[in-house]
Write a structure and sequence with these properties.
With 361 residues, this protein is α+β, with helices and mostly antiparallel strands. 25% of the residues lie in helices and 29% in strands. The chain contains 9 helices and 19 strands. Residues 13, 24, 42, 44-50, 199 line the site of adenosine-5'-triphosphate. Residues 4-241 form the ABC transporter domain.
């Protein structure tokens, strides 16, 4: 196991990069603690796989250093790094049995047969694969094959971290949920650091102790799921984390989009109204739909109600044509066309200036 430090680490696939845009990963500083779960989250092409491949050693970075427990491994070969990797498609020997698949990484390292037997038994028990040990691997389902890929990494006693590159993509939704829970359980039982690449925010939120949100090769914010949810540092993070995304209400220079009541909610309103584009960011979960007398942010007319089982998503049109979404459990008595008061706690109304969270928030 190891603490992993990315020190000014960046990469350009071009031999002679000239500007920021030439970098698939813009230089970044991050520290990942031993034994935790991390997710690299962002849309396609944002640099997640590049970052993961630098950590495994498949891509040599053009900038900065990578440290495992203080040791500089930037130039170290993949095979010397003690990293296990699970890819989108299971990498297994389909003609070998599950037992032979799990034993293979240890046989390659000349581990004593007795110890191999013990390790295979430990890992198959951890992964609930005991019943399948003597079956040919090709007979198993896609999620079980992914467990074997994971097991081939876990079976090694020297593994520093397990890198998971969208390993749930080929798994059906029901099994996905179970496999994700299994990954967390294995992390808790073994204490092995896990780094998951995904473009699915709900997957990242439910799996990771910390999430690194990326866009266009740049880390936008790194933090716990709770931090990213309650204090997105910019408009992109507010949009990418959460479902539905954060409401971003543009306030024009005269600050009249919602009336002055709404603006009094934000403690950090800039004194100069022409300082830039101001937005009020409010999570749908933080909007309470109340009677007109209890509102502190004006009223709105219900345009749509979506039923999601326990929760409902209510779309409202406020004054000046502003449309927002509220996520609530109190939607059952409501109807399209109803006028509702909007109530938001001051600490849940965040001010953004030109897309970035205002300093005082
Ligand atoms: P995806 O989710 O689609 O896998 P990603 O977030 O993992 O995307 P990367 O695969 O790291 O993103 O790609 C980041 C950028 O680097 C993209 O613009 C991509 O086209 C480019 N890129 C990736 N690999 C190479 C390569 N071997 N040579 C040149 N450019 C590359």
């Amino acid at each position: 196991m190891a603490e992993i430090i990315l020190e000014n680490l960046g990469h350009s696939y071009l031999s002679d990069p000239s500007g920021d845009n030439d970098y698939a990963l813009k230089p970044v500083n991050l520290t990942w603690q031993d034994g935790k779960t991390y997710a690299l989250l962002g849309p396609s092409g944002c640099g997640k796989t590049t970052m993961l491949n630098i950590i495994s050693g498949l891509v040599p970075p053009s900038h900065g250093r990578l440290l495992f427990d203080g040791q500089d491994v930037t130039q170290m070969a993949t095979s010397a790094r003690n990293i296990a990797q699970v890819f989108q498609f299971p990498v297994i020997y389909s003609t070998k049995t599950v037992r032979q698949n799990l034993a293979f990484p240890l046989e390659c390292r000349d581990v004593a047969p007795g110890r191999i037997k013990e390790r295979v038994a430990e890992v198959s028990a951890l992964l609930d694969l005991d019943y399948a040990l003597d079956m040919p691997a090709r007979r198993l389902s896609a999620d079980q094959k992914q467990l074997i890929s994971l097991g081939r990494g876990l079976v090694r006693e020297d593994v520093s971290a397990i890198l998971l590159d969208e390993p749930l993509t080929v798994i059906d939704p029901q099994m996905k949920f179970m496999l994700r829970r299994k990954l967390r359980e294995i992390n808790r039982k073994t204490g092995v650091t896990m780094i998951l690449v995904t473009h699915d925010q709900s997957e990242a939120m439910s799996f990771a102790d910390e999430i690194v949100v990326m866009k266009d090769g740049r880390v936008q914010q790194s933090g716990t799921p709770a931090e990213l949810f309650s204090r997105p540092q910019n408009e992109f993070v507010g949009y990418f984390i959460g479902s539905p995304p954060m409401n971003m209400i543009t306030l024009n220079a005269r600050k009249d989009a919602l009336g002055t009541d709404a603006l009094s909610l934000t403690k950090a309103l800039p004194s100069d109204p022409n300082a830039g584009l101001h937005q009020l960011g409010i999570r749908p979960e933080h909007i309470a739909l109340v009677s007109a007398t209890d509102q502190n942010m004006g009223t709105g007319t219900i345009k749509k109600i979506e039923h999601l089982g326990v929760d409902g998503i209510v779309t409202l049109e406020l004054s000046a044509g502003v449309v927002i979404k509220a996520k609530t459990r109190k939607h059952t008595g409501m109807q399209v066309g109803n006028a509702m008061g909007i109530n938001v706690r001051a600490e849940d109304a965040l001010l953004y200036v030109e897309g970035a969270l205002a300093a005082a928030q």
